[in-house]
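Practice problem: predict the structure.
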Amino acid sequence: MCRSCGSIVGGGQQQCAVCGTPVSESGQATQPRTVADSEAIRFARAVLNRPYKFTIILLVVNIFFFALMWQASGLPFSMLTPLPNEVLIPFGAKVNYYIQTKHEWWRLVTPMFLHVNLLHLIVNMYSLWIVGPYVEKLYGSAKFVVFWVLTGVGGLVASYLTVRPSLAVGPIARFIFKATDLPSAGASGALFGLVGVLFVFGIRFRHELPEGFRRAFGTGLLPMIMLNLFIGYVGRGFIDNAAHLGGMVSGALLALFVDYRRPGERSGIAVTWQVLKIAAIVLVAASFLKTVQHLSDPVTAEFVTPPQSTQTEQTEPENAAYLYYAQAMNEAQEAFFIAMKDGNPGPIDNALKNLEKAPQLDEKSEELKGRLKGLLLRLKQASAAATASPQVNKTNPAQYKELSKEFAAWGKEYNQWLKTSGRNHSGLNQLK
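Answer:
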């Protein structure tokens, strides 16, 4: 801890990155003493001494809701055991089905205070403890509350809009788009929103910030952002990357137009921000009130988690079969797109082999798999014929048009199966 400005000093550092004050006497002995810039010290003290009470309130609220959910689940203490859908959904997890069919709009607000398991909670709350105080100290509590709620909602809206099975084809697309409508919960959309705020803050005000603040924020956050995006890419099957990106973009846009509380400015808060803070708190309160009113509603059958006693014997094999089936179907669709776009039937043979090995989940899944195999075989034949006959227009022959129409019709049926019967074979919860 720096004795001059109170900021945190990393291990091994000889001087404070914010104000430049040497950390210890030994640092002074081995290096020429760096005279701390008085303006930097004044800036750091003025900012870092501000309170961050709403960061603490958010920590308590998130922990409180997780404790309620864990008690309602009746599960034994565990870091990794996920809460069942019968707990997540009544408490307000984001599920597109409930938003679309039952108009439960509050599911675009409540999930930012819910978590899937204890490890999920700990990681997000540690991140809030690191990032939250900086945003609240720089912008004030009123703006901080508004940032948290708006970026959290922005992340959830992005998650809602990216449940698009037809677009979840290929590793890049699956980084953002989701093939299944899984219950989604977590505070990281809002956390990424705070990171977006600090990123733009550091760039926008770089000319008036002391050197240490310029290094800590703005482009200094790029390594952390890139690392988190890489983690999201690796875990794209269960991490809701769309919520992360939606929250970060929302935070960046807010920071483009909102000024921060400069050192020496009066502590009074503009009436507008006070009103917006109250409105944000009322929105959250109203959302949880709606959740309480519907807490006893039965969970739709397709989202019911199998009983705990049979999960080890039944759920894991069934879920593994579903994942294998879904992967084979996604690879087959990707092979179809490549052959249609580039006239390259090469990936079709491997896709057909994987489809042959894909397990049968139910009667409809087997029918859809068979029809996709037929489409791939016909496309392979059409591609071979086009290659053998150079005079044929390869880019848009009649048979290609017919195959494209049939594939589009097939895609609609497959997406419908994913939204209905397909859910019965998937047992994952979406983390944010």
